Amino acid sequence: MIYxxxxxxxxxxxxxxxxxxxxxxxxxxxxxxxIAAKCEQEMKLSEQIADAIGTMLELDTSDMELPExxxxxxxxxxxxxxxAQVASMEPEDAPGVFMVLDSNGRLTGPTHDTAKKARDHVxxxxxxxxxHRFVVARxxxxxxxxxxxxxxxx
Length: 154
Prior knowledge:
mainly alpha, two-stranded antiparallel ribbon, elongated
């Protein structure tokens, strides 16, 4: 009686190899179709976002990728929310100063007594630094009062 050595595996037949190759080709074809559908969805979403926020950004959004567009959309939402919060806290007739902030919220340059002067300053900055975004923020003038208390000991 001849015993088969378990360490030796039989050689696959041509039919076995052809079946494995056909399965692998099918998997690759399915994965390619899924990836293509995902890319098409991402492209449509990018186009929708670019159409919606292109005018707000004052930038050319035609060559922006989806992550860049989403980041820009988040920036617009943050600016709008901050502006709404500031506007709700300040009375309209309160005296104020206008400041120019960069995209990180840092003050750039001097404060201005009118919104027009602040916007003019933004135009100058934008001309020097292409691609940078600036925001005009209004801050009401506040009055701080100090109270002195004299202590008397009996």
